[in-house]
């Protein structure tokens, strides 16, 4: 029987009460008598085990010639040590905490078993100072991913507590060059002064105001305080040039570990081959266009080095820090000539990537469960930021969960009605979802599968996923200023056999 749940702001409780008949009560009783649903089992027998030791510790880190910070790191670098394995191999990670605060590791984008998701208060206690905790899972899905702490993430990621994990496909030829580029923003010692200046918007250009408004700078956390932008933990002058040779097939993996969307321009012909680690079908060639990488998203780019001219990859935008998010690509035996950037390059819409082909879901399919998530805001002067970000009018942990059965085909409608004009990069743990439609129009290009989708002001998306990974999973905004102030809910499998209970020994802070 089809089960439809539309979670709306108005009248939700009255609808539920009106629907509570003797028949529905009997249905609930019958469902509660189902056999328990267990965590996804993984067969590790006979598989290659890749073991890594990651130590969370404080490190002096030089962002630029002028700015050195006390970063929180995995193994002493920003980003932390890259984990690179082949599809089908086992990843075993021993996390040792040498910080003064509890930490964890979440494997962003990888559909690990629920036991390995790294969410304090949901799947584990945060790892206390001086303790070691081990994660283990099979890397079954090739792609570009990253890992980060999910304990008080809004602060711990801001300090640098993240790294990258690459799962290479086992039946695919390696690229000649493979570079990972992690985007992030930082606050300098001058950011308090900049906060004051940002209050006087009359001195800002309209483009700069729009850029900040889209990320919620005019309300809550002032995003203008992020006055240093980096690639791989360094500003432009601190990054080494990426070398290529004529004829090389070059792969660039962009990962956004920050809280702002970044418009990235590559002034040559290239293809976007993957989004969030998932393949784009028959990707088209882009002619020096610009693409966006939102918080939590990954974009894989490939190009054939034709040997013509060196070039730079940069961030477009009027914010002063934009000039820091830049890196050069140069030919090993080149003549030193460099391509110029267009001032207004075309912008790529990810919903129009590639060619249409068979997909798992269609907009007119019948789904077992349907939910509607209204992404909004509410003034709340009892909070430090004076505002909370809500899902269906509620904040975590009071936002109603998405209750599903194992095997359900689930459709979720995401609507951004936030009054602060902010974007919401919504990230689903434990699953990939397919983007079905944007603003009521079905996608006509490649099936786009993601785990993080940036829903901009006024936009509506329909997404769908198969309930094939039992557990309790977060579904939240990856601007963690929004998540830590409410924009989080849970996807909960019915009849799930709970494996975790909060011990009360740790102040678990899942966002």
From TrEMBL:
Recall the GO molecular function terms of this protein's record. Answer: copper ion binding; oxidoreductase activity
Signal peptide positions (record): 1-18
Record's InterPro entries?
Cu-oxidase-like_N, Cu-oxidase_2nd, Cu-oxidase_C, Cu-oxidase_fam, Cu_oxidase_CS, Cu_oxidase_Cu_BS, Cupredoxin
Q: Indicate what this protein is called per its UniProt record.
A: Copper resistance protein A
Highest taxon listed in the record's lineage: Bacteria
Supply the PANTHER family for this chain: FI03373P-RELATED (PTHR11709:SF394), MULTI-COPPER OXIDASE (PTHR11709)
Kindly state which keywords UniProt assigns to this record, in alphabetical order.
Answer: Copper, Metal-binding, Oxidoreductase, Signal
Q: Which Pfam families does UniProt cross-reference here?
A: Cu-oxidase, Cu-oxidase_2, Cu-oxidase_3
State the organism named in the record.
Virgibacillus massiliensis
| Domain spans labelled Plastocyanin-like | 57-171, 178-315, 378-492
Is the keyword Metal-binding assigned to this protein? Answer: yes
Q: Does the keyword GTP-binding apply?
A: no
Gene assigned in the entry:
copA_1
